[in-house]
């Protein structure tokens, strides 16, 4: 009989943590410290931090690598050519080792008990029922600790995306995690040349199959004015989403009598982006398959047209400012000492 061979523990695959905290970033080295400090302070330590750098040029790699060398929690850094937040999120999901996937944007902060409370609420769902749930969502506050948006009508509230947005008409920032397996089941539909995909595409897809537990605890600190370049874009760059708004209008048409103002807002944005894309009226009306949707578009289109005019004016003003700055830089660069 052979002698059993000893195995090196270093050869074993790493144990899966409870949470993957995921941060997509692009040229946000000046704000990433908030996320890092929040994670370092967590009372619940069973997590990893996955950072996907979407082509930064501001020293993000060196910054995160330095943290990874000294942190007492796992930090895993991945760089990719700039492709947008949706593609970065898909990459983060592929690399995740955690059971639960929590997105912390590059300027987020959260209290020291955030992961502990999320874990508590997840484990509070009876094990025999947990397969029906994708995750847990909590509330957000601003830097002063004041609630942003509406609280949930009861705690806990087990509901889907449509209930939250239409039946309860809740507004404001919310924050939560989903099971990593749910994100892998419903990735962002990134196609060649598509950089910006509305997050609702994934939230709605997950909600068709799973329910989410909602709790009235403030677990994220939102810093106003921290717009991320991963999501920043001109209005004209979003015209591809006119098809998305048409799809939403069709899929959500049954909620028209419950939340008519919300459907009207969708119709306004559909008209807005259609006008920006140069679609004539006939083209705009064609995807609207039912008479109520056509009437809704008729009511919304004047507002959508005005918004498209405003978008074009803002874009033109931005282009003029950019051209003026470029001309000023060229003039300063071309100036030299006078000949004698």
Question: Can you walk me through this structure?
Answer:
With 340 residues, this protein is an alpha/beta fold. It has two domains: 17-221, Spore Coat Polysaccharide Biosynthesis Protein SpsA, Chain A (Alpha-Beta Complex); 237-325, no CATH class. The protein has eleven helices and nine strands. It has helices at residues 32-40, 60-70, 85-95, 114-124, 161-167, 180-185, 200-209, 242-251, 260-276, 281-285, 291-334; strands at 19-25, 47-53, 74-79, 100-103, 133-141, 147-148, 157-159, 174-179, 211-221. Strands 1, 2, 3, 4, 5, 6, 7, 8 and 9 form a nine-stranded mixed β-sheet that branches. α1 links the parallel β1 (19-25) and β2 (47-53). α8 (242-251) runs antiparallel to α9 and α9 (260-276) packs across α11 (291-334). The protein starts with 18 loop residues before the first strand and ends in a 6-residue tail after the last helix.
Question: Key terms for this structure?
Answer:
340 residues, alpha/beta, Spore Coat Polysaccharide Biosynthesis Protein SpsA, Chain A, 2 domains, nine-stranded mixed sheet, disordered N terminus
